[in-house]
Amino acid sequence: MRRLGRALYRTAVAVSVLIVVFFCGFKALVRPPEQAAPPTASIPSRAPASDDPDTPEDESAATPTPVPLVRKEGFYTFLLAATDVGGGNTDTIMVAAYDTAEQKVGVVSIPRDTLVDRSFPKINAVYGSGGVEALKETVSDLIGIPIDHYMTVNIRAFKALVDAVGGIDFYVPCDMDYDDSTPGQELYIHYKEGMQHLNGQQALEVVRFRHNNDGSGYTDVGRTQTQQKMLTAIAKKVLSWSSLSLFNNFVDIFTQNVKTDLSATDIAWFATQAVGVDFSTGVSTGTLPGDGDARYNGVSWCYQLDREGCLEIFNELLNPYTTEITLDMTNMFQVK
């Protein structure tokens, strides 16, 4: 009996050592991803006062001095984009910020018709003409912050993910009654306001809804808010599952339907951090405010951003710096 006890003790010690070795190896291999380098900003500073009484006062006035911006440690930014049915435009554009130190997530939607200074002046067309790198650069320039990583998703992933978790319970924000038999669109959306259990196809229909056939419903901004709530609900349910077979299913969905510049070790590191996020209190969302009546380059219904309102959202939800983002760091194009 004593010999059996010693054997069990040695086995327990060996298992413990293996666990420690594997954990240390994991920590050594899976490191925090690198952050994109910030640009150099110019901030006002005063030159030293001159002792020469004949020196004009203007020469000691405030002058722009290049000062490097400092990024918060463990604070990452992501471009999230979903392509439309044809795959040429981005039906959904979001910027997410994840503060791994504070376990806080900010998600900001950029309306698809947002005005940009291009031949076709709506931001949702950037992807189709220049790809994800062009969209990433445009979004970064607009907001005034570096984007560390991107993910683009097609609609098959959205449907498959919702179905993989057995559907989701979601509050449909209004009565939806819309039919579009146009080839390539073929939308038939019919739901009553209230809590519904939605499968993948139904969830996709709800997030694509803009207005009813009679014109009632909500605008692009209303749709982005619905998309944010839907994505939060899906993420919360995905992270609540612990089944290994279901996890493998998630991996298959991701690899088949998501394009990203995140490496496997990057994803593994973020996954270990994300389990600490409280999706009830740790996730904040916003939509960039503006006016959808702008016209530019002959194109109507462009969404011109409210610069002051947007700046407040940038600083509250997305700011990766230890200092505030200022208007001169952004590039929110305005029609003259």
UniProtKB/TrEMBL annotation:
InterPro entries: LytR/CpsA/Psr_CW_biosynth, LytR_CpsA_psr
Cell envelope-related transcriptional attenuator domain span: 89-239
Keyword flag Zinc: no
Region described as Disordered: 35-66
Keywords, alphabetical: Membrane, Transmembrane, Transmembrane helix
Source species, domain of life: Bacteria
Name assigned to this protein: Cell envelope-associated transcriptional attenuator LytRNA-CpsA-Psr, subfamily M
Organism name: Intestinimonas butyriciproducens
Lineage, top ranks: Bacteria, Bacillati, Bacillota, Clostridia, Eubacteriales
